[in-house]
């Protein structure tokens, strides 16, 4: 077990409020960092032996790599701001290659520009990606009557009705799959692509809605990189935030699952596999299924809502090739996406050596790439042996690019129940969960299950939870179970 103790405090000084953060992913770490900045005493509990959740900086053949998330949205400020706050500003880097391909209809085809999650403003942008029939269907869209959207609608269902299924199956599905590992025909447009949802409600034509979004972009913002990584791997963000938490006096305790949570007159009682804790407040930054179990007694309504959150599982297969074997064969760009409709096993491949300058510099004799396998409803893929996942990745890579070399090293990382799904009605579900949780003084929830799965969204969710705890005075004392419900 690893922990970092708070510094010595003057016994005559008033006791700082104590908040326990449950979960050591980036959301839990960001919440702890925010609380400490406001003078709150923090204990962070993580069930496993590692911090960071889906952020994991590892290595292969001696070269640093990300074994989880590899980048963050840079045009949204929260992730970049946190990285800068913990000293990683100089190590932030944009991708060195930003062009990608789609492996569909038997060949690699350039990813079109000028789209919003695969939805174009100009039908000509999809020439070559769609069939002639698909392009003809796309051109009919401006003349179609408006589509009733209501309070929410599935991205795939709406886009297919306006533009035809080919646009969804060949482009929207693989792009959304890269974010959520989900099914475009189930994913909420309001939750997953809110800017498109808002524009579609004010335009009769979807193509016109996309053009409106594009014309309204700030030119300066549009010129900035969309994504950012961190030299050595974006997984280092979790390590840097943890270091900052410890330096500020926060306590981090690993390998300590939380077994129970109860509200008493003197605050929250947290039962763990180690010592019991009492706190003025609790931030639940655990996955939805774990939060559901822990909240079952104190808030059956929140627990029931959390229990309905479904997750997708996936595996990442990271491979190191001799650069002389791979570099001349693989196409330019950062990698490619794979539409599920084509029946392939891998759903994407990232050419890390091309995408990140620090990767190329750290391993000059190697070419690092990775494939991802598994979507919502394909949990059986993760039951395959590591060697089988490597072999099927190599077969698909060979079919797509002509690569025949064998890797000199491989690493398979499984993310079981790693990505929460956002079906139609997700935001209403989150609102109901938060409404139920708000009745529990001194408790808040945050993380990928609520407001977005990317790093900035998780950080924003964590900071919201922390700010709400900070804004309350002595959050839970004197409010035993039942008060306020």
What characteristics describe this protein?
485 residues; alpha+beta; FAD/NAD(P)-binding domain; protoporphyrinogen ix oxidase, domain 3; Polyamine Oxidase, Chain A, domain 2; 3 domains; 7-stranded mixed sheet; 5-stranded parallel sheet; 19 helices; 22 strands; 35% helix; 21% strand; globular; disordered N terminus
Describe the structure.
The chain has 485 residues and is of the alpha+beta class. The protein folds into three domains: 192 residues, FAD/NAD(P)-binding domain; 123 residues, protoporphyrinogen ix oxidase, domain 3 (Orthogonal Bundle), CATH 1.10.3110.10; 110 residues, Alpha-Beta Complex (Polyamine Oxidase, Chain A, domain 2), CATH 3.90.660.20. The chain has a seven-stranded mixed beta sheet. A five-stranded parallel beta sheet has the order 12-2-1-16-22, with helices on one face. It has a three-stranded antiparallel beta sheet with strand order 5-11-6. A hairpin with a 4-residue loop joins strand 14 and strand 15. Helix 7 crosses helix 8. It is globular and about 70 Å long. The two termini are 37 Å apart. The N terminus is likely disordered. It catalyses: coproporphyrinogen III + 3 O2 = coproporphyrin III + 3 H2O2. Belongs to the protoporphyrinogen/coproporphyrinogen oxidase family. Coproporphyrinogen III oxidase subfamily. Involved in coproporphyrin-dependent heme b biosynthesis. Catalyzes the oxidation of coproporphyrinogen III to coproporphyrin III.
